[in-house]
Specification:
Elements: E1 2-7, H1 22-29, E2 41-45, E3 51-54, H2 60-65, E4 81-85, H3 91-94, H4 96-99, E5 107-111, H5 113-118, H6 125-129, E6 135-139, E7 155-161, E8 182-188, E9 194-198, H7 206-214, E10 217-221, H8 229-233, H9 254-259, E11 266-270, H10 284-291, E12 294-296, E13 302-304
Parallel strand pairs: 3-4, 4-5, 5-6, 9-10, 10-11, 11-12
Antiparallel strand pairs: 1-2, 1-13, 2-3, 7-8, 8-9
The protein binds D-malate, manganese (II) ion and zinc ion.
Zinc ion is lined by residues 16, 19, 21, 23-24, 274-275.
């Protein structure tokens, strides 16, 4: 399978429009070695023809312009996007649906019932799109049965529930339900190779560890380096876990978990917040990741599995 990173940043992108932190300022002024990043999304394909987009970011039009495989190539109105998979109902993962409203067919969207409810009630994108291209909702099971996407027979998808956070507008924000957030294992039947994608992940429960342990490649939550990053910088009042993200450093952090994976597992961080020191390619934190064979996703990264 082919994985193309459309957007590697967390909500807000990098640099964030209103942020003057060392990273955002350093990138604008050219004083640090770092690259711009759009908001959280990947595209995945078995054959390079039909693509599944995981999460639709507010930056999706820019991401499509930068990736010819998603552009119209066969008919007057056309797209390489065969279907959309949503891992949660957060703004940075769903707002791009509005940008796809010119679609000549209803958008085929796979998400859980909980995510569908948030996208019909709290943030009624699905209802608004009924006035444009419409949406065909496909229920994403989280009972381990997995799912298939018509026309993409070579790939098998299996979602697991995660502890992260429903969006601030959701009635589930402080009252979590299984299905508010998922991680997804994608398996290529032809090669038996698997990837695990979980850009929002606050707790590595045993079933999540099992999914990570079984994958050839993991793309996991790279939002924050430290648990109190936002508080220390004076840009927020909540810890990483309180907003649904396991930090990389410290006891029980993401690095500790990734270091326990088999040596041959490809390990990548994705959904990186603009405050995270790993964005500075010359930082000590980035060097620590490199020493541990952990990669930092950048926009446009191609992974062949
Ligand atoms: C998150 O990942 O915590 C959210 O997407 C933040 C946001 O709403 O931008
Ligand atoms: Mn996010
Ligand atoms: Zn910043």
């Amino acid at each position: 399978m082919k994985i193309h990173v459309l957007g590697s940043a967390a909500g807000g992108g990098f640099p964030q429009w209103n942020c003057n932190c060392a990273n955002c300022d350093g990138l604008r002024s050219g004083t640090i070695r770092a690259s711009r990043r759009t908001q959280s999304s990947i595209a995945l394909s078995a054959d390079g023809g039909d693509w599944i987009v995981f999460n639709t970011s507010p930056d999706i039009l820019q991401q499509i312009r930068a990736f010819p495989a998603l552009q119209p190539g066969r008919r007057l109105r056309d797209t390489g996007i065969r279907a959309i998979v949503l891992i949660d109902a957060q703004i940075d993962h769903t707002t791009g649906l509005y940008m796809l409203r010119e679609s000549s067919k209803p958008l085929d969207i796979w998400c859980t019932e909980q995510v569908r409810d948030d996208l019909r009630n709290g943030n009624p994108i699905f209802d608004i799109l009924e006035h444009y291209c419409k949406v065909t909702w496909h229920v994403m099971p989280i009972d381990g049965s997995g799912f298939e996407i018509e026309g993409i027979g070579d790939l098998h998808f299996a979602a697991v529930p995660l502890r992260s956070k429903a969006p601030p507008y959701s009635p589930h924000r402080e009252n979590p339900h299984p299905g508010d957030n998922v991680g997804i294992t994608i398996r290529d039947r032809r090669t038996a190779r698997t990837a695990f994608y979980a850009p929002g992940l606050a707790d590595i429960e045993p079933h999540v560890w099992h999914a990570m342990r079984s994958a050839d490649c993991v793309l996991v939550d790279g939002t924050f380096w430290t648990h109190d990053e936002m508080i220390r910088l004076g840009v927020g009042t909540k810890t990483a876990v309180e907003i649904g993200h396991l930090p990389q450093s410290g006891p029980g952090g993401m690095i500790e978990h990734l270091s326990r994976l088999p040596a041959q597992t490809r390990k990548l961080l994705i959904h990186i917040n603009n405050t995270n020191p790993i964005l500075d390619e010359d930082s000590l934190q980035r060097a620590e990741l490199t020493a541990r064979n952990i990669e930092v996703c950048h926009d446009g990264l191609d992974i062949q599995l």
